[in-house]
Specification:
Elements lengths: L10 E4 L2 E11 L9 E8 L5 E7 L5 E2 L3 E10 L3 E6 L5 E5 L18 E5 L2 E6 L3 E9 L12 E6 L4 E5 L7 E5 L5 E4 L1
Antiparallel strand pairs: 1-2, 1-5, 2-3, 3-4, 6-7, 6-9, 7-8, 9-10, 11-12, 11-14, 12-13, 14-15
């Protein structure tokens, strides 16, 4: 796979290890005849270490032999998240520290969760781009403050805290971006 074709979320092999691309920046050449550089921020899917990769647009990386399986959350305990494959009902477990930045978006009935399987082991999760969550606690809006676009913190059903516009009320369902953790809209 050419460096210029690699997208965020792609799993490639770098120095013999599978890494998932998490961020891309492109540096245009400053001189005539120079190559465009692609700088990738990646995470090793097995060891969870961060990796920085810099390539020219014509450099090649192999795509990792990786499976993405549709799963659903079964339950969590104090140390692990337990998932079940929707096709063959195989169960996977992930340590909570490996998914601590994603756990605030996961509910029991959430569709679109995909497990990243490498060597028959679940090494990570791929969440949908946005999820719907209900507000369990937020302060009421103050009348007369609607002229400015102020925000207030709202606690969602999973314990995640996001900043929402002042007109949002407790009990409403919201659409939240799973990549940034920001409020998108009412559901």
């Amino acid at each position: 796979m050419l460096a210029k074709d690699i997208k965020t979320g792609t799993v490639v092999v770098h120095e013999g290890n599978p890494v998932m691309i998490q961020g891309i920046s492109v540096q245009s050449p400053s001189a005539r005849g120079a190559a465009t550089l692609y700088k990738f921020r990646a995470r090793n899917v097995v060891t969870k270490n961060k990796v920085d990769i810099t390539l020219k647009g014509t450099d090649n990386l192999d795509e990792a032999d990786f499976a993405r399986r549709d799963v659903q959350m079964m339950y969590t305990d104090p140390t692990n998240l337990y998932l079940m494959d929707k096709e063959d009902f195989q169960q996977y477990e992930l340590p909570l520290e490996d998914v601590e930045d994603q756990i605030g978006f996961i509910t029991e009935g959430l569709d679109g969760i995909r497990a990243l399987i490498y060597n028959d082991q679940c090494v990570g999760l791929d969440l949908p781009a946005s999820v719907e969550l209900q507000i369990t606690q937020c302060d009421p809006g103050v009348k007369g403050n609607s002229a400015t676009s102020r925000t207030k913190p709202a606690t969602l059903e999973t314990g995640l805290v996001v900043h929402v516009p002042e007109y949002i009320k407790e009990g409403e369902r919201l659409r939240i971006d799973t990549r940034t953790g920001e409020f998108l809209s009412r559901a």
